[in-house]
Amino acid sequence: MSESPSANPVLVVGGGIGGLTTALALSRKGIPVRVLEQAAEFKEIGAGIQLGPNVFRMFELLGLTEAIFHWAAFPDALEMRDAMTGETVVEMRIDTLYDRYRAPYGVIHRADLLNQIHNACDASNLIELLPSRKVVSIEDNGYNVTVHTETGETFKGAALVGCDGLWSTVRAHIINDGKPIVSGHIAYRAVLPTAEWPKEYRLPRMVVWAGNKTHLVHYPLRRGELFNLVVVFHSDRYQEGWDSYGDPTELHERFAEKCEPVRTLLKKVDSWRMWVLCDRPPIKHWSKERITLLGDAAHPMLQYLAQGACMAIEDAVCLADQIEAIGGDYRTAFKRYEELRYLRTARVQIMARVYGEVYHANNVVRELRNKVLREWAAQGGIDMSWLYGDQPELPHVNKVRHPQTALL
Ligand SMILES: Cc1cc2nc3c(=O)[nH]c(=O)nc-3n(C[C@H](O)[C@H](O)[C@H](O)COP(=O)(O)OP(=O)(O)OC[C@H]3O[C@@H](n4cnc5c(N)ncnc54)[C@H](O)[C@@H]3O)c2cc1C
């Protein structure tokens, strides 16, 4: 199966984290790939992203560990504070997850993550990266797949993987189940140089200030050179949309009743980017003949478990393995891949909604949350093996080396 990308490649629509990882994983199996990305550059905006131990094992399989380690930060703990009173509800060590899952928990700037995957793709002569190609229509004629771009170009491939995110054109073509569900939750994100972040909050950990229908998270990025802030609140003002500038006045109104440190921290940022958070209910089938979906196109989820990108990367490894195992019979490989992945990704989609409720609880539910979390912490923490542990559909990784970095 080793040909140049121009000879009957797999077409990947979308060059975000899912699309580029898919290209890399397929190329590692000797499969030629052509990636069509609508934007003029392969580029991530946005801010930090959390990486669970499950995805570090995938980086190891893809040969990305050292590149990611260079750019990531490895917080020591996750601290939950009550945004109304400021008290610490619970503190959970996350550096000890390494011992249990043979891989660390890290955080990274999205741009740094995408750049590292992009560099690895660039180094492969099996991958052709084509920016400024917005796919507008798709045909599967039984032997191969043809796509047409907005500018009138046509590309043919042996099969197609739709990695075109939440508002997927490929999904509309093969499933046609309408628009994603607008959750009513809005995220504002910003990144600051560490020098601009108050000294007393330059903590080497992830801190979540959880409040009524709101939360604020901050953590260091890029080996401690930057600080990442994510603020989430409920709002019915926004119907849909993605990645525009947020209105700080609305933000300060939503947090007016929160404790003083939270209000002070929010004032550190002048310019926020805004995301309207959406998901979909899980589905069992997301492949049709020679076309399949991956990442947010297949199973978009709310961000409360910090796993959307991690799931896309796991998908890519699983998909490449199935294609290799079945010797290039794409229809069968795509069916096997969705069968192996739908329950895992469905669980994360559903649990992400539950975690959203936990973060944003109020009144009795908030008190109950605080009590239960403290009990769990006293018993040694919550067992997250279902999420961070080994998965039967993914290759076993003996261990990822310890990052051994001290933060801040
Ligand atoms: C506030 C927030 C915080 C998050 N935090 C985390 C976290 O901590 N950890 C984590 O793992 N995940 C997190 N996520 C989720 C994560 O960002 C997504 O799950 C992930 O980016 C999905 O990757 P993707 O490649 O499937 O889709 P996308 O990143 O959306 O990429 C899709 C790509 O396809 C391109 N495209 C779209 N349509 C077309 C077309 N017609 N033709 C050609 N190209 C097209 C787009 O330009 C884009 O480059 C978070 C999400 C949000 C909103």
Describe what this molecule looks like in 3D.
This protein has 408 residues and is of the alpha/beta class. The chain contains twelve helices and 19 strands. It has helices spanning 17-28, 53-62, 65-71, 97-101, 110-122, 169-174, 248-254, 260-266, 308-325, 330-359, 363-378, 385-388; strands at residues 10-13, 33-36, 48-51, 77-82, 88-93, 106-109, 127-130, 135-140, 145-149, 154-157, 159-162, 181-193, 206-211, 214-221, 226-234, 244-245, 273-279, 287-288, 291-293. The strands form four sheets. It has an eight-stranded mixed beta sheet with strand order 5-4-13-14-15-12-17-16, covered by helices on one side. Strands 7-2-1-11-19-18 form a six-stranded mixed beta sheet. It has a three-stranded antiparallel beta sheet with strand order 8-9-10. Strand 14 and strand 15 (226-234) form a beta hairpin. It is globular. The model has no long low-confidence stretch (mean pLDDT 92). The structure holds flavin-adenine dinucleotide. Flavin-adenine dinucleotide is lined by residues 13-19, 36-39, 49-50, 134-135, 163-166, 169, 187, 230, 275, 277, 295-297, 303, 306-310, 312.
